[in-house]
TrEMBL record:
Keywords: Membrane, Translocase, Transmembrane, Transmembrane helix. Belongs to the cytochrome c oxidase subunit 3 family. GO terms for molecular function: cytochrome-c oxidase activity. Gene3D superfamilies: 1.10.287.70, Cytochrome c oxidase, subunit III, four-helix bundle. GO terms for cellular component: plasma membrane. It is found in: Cell membrane; Membrane. This is cytochrome-c oxidase. It is an enzyme of class 7 (translocase). The chain crosses the membrane at residues 15-35, 47-69, 90-110, 159-179, 191-208, 228-256, 276-294. GO terms for biological process: aerobic electron transport chain. SUPFAM superfamilies: Cytochrome c oxidase subunit III-like. Its EC number is 7.1.1.9.
Amino acid sequence: MSEHQEYYVPDQSKWPIIATFGLGTTLFGAATIMVDGGQGASTRSGWMIFIVGMLLMAYMIFGWFGSVVRESRAGLYSPQMDRSFRWGMSWFIFSEIMFFAAFFGALFYARVFAIPWLGGEGDRGSSNMLWEGFQATWPLLNTPDPSLYPAPKGVIGPWGLPLINTILLVSSSFTITVAHHALRADNRKKLKLWLGATIILALVFVGLQAEEYMHAYQDLNLTLQSGIYGSTFFMLTGFHGAHVILGTIMLIVMLIRISKGHFSADNHFGFEAVAWYWHFVDVVWLVLFVFVYVI
């Protein structure tokens, strides 16, 4: 008779339904903030709903991942389960690639098609009649209707903070790779050192990004309301920054688990998945740096 590999089937879990309510509440709160803010109304209720949703999501993430960690530590997972985790993380990163591709696509469409059409270029140049005299340039510092969309006074050049942040993220990809090799060699001291360095680089990146945003809002009048350039700039850099913050939290959790003796040289996909995610965040920033700041 052929032998069948054992496959662990977990008990019924409350976490999927909590995730559903948490995500739905978060998105409803975010939509309420945008709608009320756009109408000039108070956004207090929207923020309260959003915060409740985020707290539910945090509760779900820590609870669900805690269950996975306990099951893994108990030796309940088989090689097939490991492959399932790897495929799941691969598809998750692919979905994130498509997420950012949509925003880069919007940037490409605005720069290559929509703005030149408004300036009278191309086969739809008649759109120029909407705002006669409009000059198509990029970055767009002369919006078609300044009364609705005040133009920014300037843009953030690539060779200041953005370049420093690029160096930081590229360096962090190197440090987490060294940490991964240290884990595979079962060198815990080296692992903690290089993972800690990765976390420090990530925190510095977030701090400099916040400083850049303050400079944009306070000194350059570059905001989400500054026409299509301001919208695409903050949507791309903002969502990337959110991913960096999430990745940093994941790195900190990995350091805590390593300090507790979790993972081994042969069994450490939790760490490896975070490393995959961090490399993805790094690559997105490189593309963002070129197409948002440089070109």
